[in-house]
């Protein structure tokens, strides 16, 4: 048989098969396998890692929210389904065992919700050494604790889930309602104890958080990840350009948000990567304004902080532009001041600086720009009144992806004007690469969109 032949991988006896080439299946498996191997090799020889995926959450008893996977779980497994647990165990031979617990969906549920991955694909595509229904997690975990309790050097890494939990994994939290079950709070349930305390026995090995170690791995992106992020940046930037051009014909912040969402999706993004800020006029002076339900008034600026999610990677762009397509002179002056600061900060990004240095330099630059416009401010005033958050503290290295933003809210004759300009940057050995250049930010480029 041709090694690259298309082979069927059955995900349901009732629905058509998912078809992947052997080479594609191997690539999918190897990427996540390498991450798991890197993580486990950094831990003690008898370490156990428990990664808990997110559950389905509910807005009301029967209306569920869109599913969003635990990003650490997704990074290590590639499995984007609710109610899953991954267990990684270091073995005496220097290898590790990877066990997946996932939903074993019966036929009658498939009619309602469609097929789930199932145990066969958990091993053949997602690379698990063994796979079980998620209802088997509790007894497996209890036995694992008992075995590890005999080893004084054993360490268990576990991040207790903070969100709602569901019944297959955590049956103590299921309560009957109209013949069905629904999840309750992770801090509720039997005896008021969260599920993870109920399953960790008193003589179990000590537990440590695993998320900080995974976050450190995620901080430096691979070449493939950067290209996906570049696509997210391009898709989002092009959508911003369309939104800027459409803005003079729109009446409300909500309509502008809808234009962005439509264009994100039409270009391949799944949705907004986060709750967007669409803040017209003085609403822009609220750092995280997300109501997005007010009128857009001609003559005002609108601040938009949004980005599309593409391939599970997010763009994060901020632009501030005139609702009617033309900046007034005071708006232009202030906007150009903020833009000057942001562009100089981007030019600083390299492996020889930290984000902390960039942040403090931005305060110096903003003070210079505002005083040039006639403001009487010093760096202390700028840091206290104009900068609501810090860029960060870590040193930069090739593959690190950061956002660089400059923003300010202004008093006196500029009262009610809030400006933020933000781009996504990846650090390279040569310097930097801006991933969000498709979103216009020069005054001339923005105004040309509505001519």
UniProtKB/TrEMBL annotation:
GO biological process, one term: proteolysis
A GO molecular-function annotation: metalloaminopeptidase activity
Comp. bias intervals (Low complexity): 177-187
Pfam families per the UniProt record, alphabetical: AMP_N, Peptidase_M24
Entries under InterPro entries matching the protein: Aminopep_P_N, Creatin/AminoP/Spt16_N, Creatinase/aminopeptidase-like, Pept_M24, X-Pro_dipept-like
Cofactor or coenzyme needed: Mn(2+)
Transmembrane segments: none
Protein family according to the UniProt entry: Belongs to the peptidase M24B family.
Residues covered by region (Disordered): 168-192
Domain Aminopeptidase P N-terminal residues, every copy: 28-166
Protein's name according to its UniProt entry: Peptidase M24, structural domain-containing protein
Alphabetically ordered keywords of this record: Hydrolase, Manganese, Metal-binding
């Amino acid at each position: 048989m041709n090694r690259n032949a298309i082979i069927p991988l059955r995900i349901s006896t009732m629905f058509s098969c998912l078809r992947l080439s052997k080479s594609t299946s191997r690539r999918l498996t190897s990427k996540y396998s390498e991450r798991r191997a890197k993580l486990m090799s950094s831990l003690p020889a008898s370490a156990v890692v428990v990664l808990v995926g997110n559950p389905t959450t509910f807005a009301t008893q029967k209306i569920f929210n869109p599913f969003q996977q635990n990003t650490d779980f997704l990074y290590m497994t590639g499995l984007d389904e609710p109610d899953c647990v991954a267990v990684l165990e270091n073995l005496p031979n220097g290898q590790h065992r990877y066990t997946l617990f996932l939903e074993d969906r019966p036929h009658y549920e498939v009619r309602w919700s469609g097929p789930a991955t199932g145990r066969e694909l958990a091993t053949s595509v997602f690379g698990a050494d063994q796979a079980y229904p998620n209802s088997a997690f509790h007894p497996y975990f209890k036995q694992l604790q008992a075995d590890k309790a005999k080893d004084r050097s054993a360490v268990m890494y576990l991040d207790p889930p903070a969100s709602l939990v569901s019944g297959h994994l955590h049956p103590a939290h299921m309560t009957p309602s109209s013949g069905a079950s629904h999840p309750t709070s992770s801090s509720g349930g039997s005896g008021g104890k969260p599920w993870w305390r109920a399953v960790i026995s008193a003589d179990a090995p000590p537990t440590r958080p695993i998320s900080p170690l995974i976050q450190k791995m995620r901080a430096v992106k691979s070449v493939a990840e950067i290209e996906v992020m570049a696509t997210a940046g391009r898709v989002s930037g092009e959508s911003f350009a369309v939104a800027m051009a459409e803005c003079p014909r729109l009446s409300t912040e909500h309509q502008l948000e809808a234009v962005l969402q439509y264009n994100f999706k039409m270009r391949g993004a799944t949705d907004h990567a986060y709750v967007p800020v669409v803040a017209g006029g003085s609403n822009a002076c609220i750092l995280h304004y997300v109501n997005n339900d007010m009128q857009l008034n001609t003559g005002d600026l609108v601040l938009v902080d949004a980005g599309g999610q593409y391939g599970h990677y997010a763009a994060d762009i901020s632009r501030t532009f005139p609702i009617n397509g033309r900046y007034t002179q005071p708006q232009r002056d202030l906007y150009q001041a903020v833009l000057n600061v942001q562009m100089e900060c981007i030019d600083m990004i390299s492996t020889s600086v930290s984000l902390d240095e960039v942040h403090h330099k931005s305060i110096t630059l903003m003070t210079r720009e505002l005083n040039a416009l006639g403001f009487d401010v010093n760096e202390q005033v700028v840091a206290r009144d104009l900068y609501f958050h810090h860029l960060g503290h870590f040193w930069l290295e090739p593959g690190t992806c950061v956002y660089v933003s400059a923003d300010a809210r202004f008093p006196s004759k500029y009262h009610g004007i809030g400006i933020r300009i933000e781009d996504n940057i990846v650090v390279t050995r040569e310097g930097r690469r801006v991933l969000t250049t498709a979103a216009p930010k020069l005054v001339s480029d923005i105004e040309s969109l509505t001519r």
